[in-house]
Amino acid sequence: MAEQYVRQSVEGFIIKALQSLGGSASKKAIKEEIVADDSNDISYENAFEPILSRNGTSYIPFSLDFNFGLINLYTCGYVEDYGRRGDVTLTEIGRMANYAGFPSEEEQEKIRKYWKKKDQERAERKSKKQTPVDSENTDVSATPAEITAVEDNDSSEDWRVTVLEQIKQFSPKKFESFSRLLLSRMGVKFDREKGVKMSGDHGIDGYGYFESDEFRTAKVVIQCKRYTDSPVSEPEIDKFKGVMMSFNADYGIFITTSFFTKQAQTKAVQGGNTVTLIDGQRLVDLIEKYQLHITPVQNYVLNDYYFQKD
């Protein structure tokens, strides 16, 4: 288990991540880059695993700081207007910025004025009962400004947390079946003997074939681990590679609801028998891509324009 996340300013982490990613990336990609950076103390659990607030709702404290930081960077001209689902793109100021020096005294004043204005607008809307009073996604200890940060950012991604929490409650058998279904949608054809009936006795959860083009068919071995907290470690990848060799597989796919240690990630690509790693976040990406038991819903959120007097 990782240590409990400590609330902090993450604007510097965001700038550094975006600079490393070429200046433009999705919010999820930025978070993953921050997690991969050993110079900070943000872990995978911090960035993606929800906790229970005092009022019993799930939320991710880091997401609060992340959204708060993005708004501060936009306010100071470091990133372009990214909208609710768009990529975050650095401005010229952001591309040239020294992330360790943010914010300057002048920038601190801009940020202070911005949040003072937002708190005033929120208080006015609350008094007129134009918006809900409370946010369901924040801790009760959050300040009004921080609650505004979450309300003003994209809440349509909440389903990602929910679906992963539900998958973690699957029985091992259902999780294996779910994983086979997903991979089938991706083009893997499972062998009915080796891929299903024999898998439980041979240390794998699936065996099949994937046609990468019109002339090439690869043999694929699947492993699934439904973990609620613990990451997949290097020894588990090493063991899986041994099983792959016994099946003479071309490559393997290792799926988990948690994540992989950095040592496990390194081990997965060593040697000739490489392993494709699918952690909890990538798993949800694939669920979205292949529309696996989910229904898209279109919704609209009013911009500040409708709440401004002039």
List strands and helices in order, with pairings:
Elements: H1 11-20, E1 24-25, H2 27-36, H3 44-48, E2 51-52, E3 58-59, H4 61-75, E4 88-89, H5 92-96, H6 105-128, H7 144-152, H8 158-167, H9 172-185, E5 188-190, H10 192-197, E6 206-211, E7 217-225, H11 234-246, E8 251-256, H12 262-268, E9 275-278, H13 280-289
Parallel strand pairs: 7-8, 8-9
Antiparallel strand pairs: 1-4, 2-3, 5-6, 6-7
Content of β-strand = 5-15%
What profile does the largest beta sheet have?
A: 5 strands, mixed
Q: What structural category do the secondary elements indicate?
A: alpha/beta
Task: Label the overall shape.
Answer: elongated
Short key terms for the protein model shown above:
13 helices, alpha/beta, 310 residues
Molecular structure report:
The protein is built from 13 helices and 9 strands. Residues 131-141 have low confidence and may be disordered. The radius of gyration is 22 Å and the shape is elongated. The protein has helices spanning 11-20, 27-36, 44-48, 61-75, 92-96, 105-128, 144-152, 158-167, 172-185, 192-197, 234-246, 262-268, 280-289, and strands at residues 24-25, 51-52, 58-59, 88-89, 188-190, 206-211, 217-225, 251-256, 275-278. The strands form 3 sheets. The chain has a 5-stranded mixed β-sheet, sandwiched between helices. A two-stranded antiparallel sheet has the order 1-4. The longest helix has 24 residues, at 105-128. Strand 6 and strand 7 (217-225) form a beta hairpin. The protein has 310 residues and is an alpha/beta fold. Helix 4 packs across helix 7 and helix 11 (234-246) runs parallel beside helix 12 (262-268).
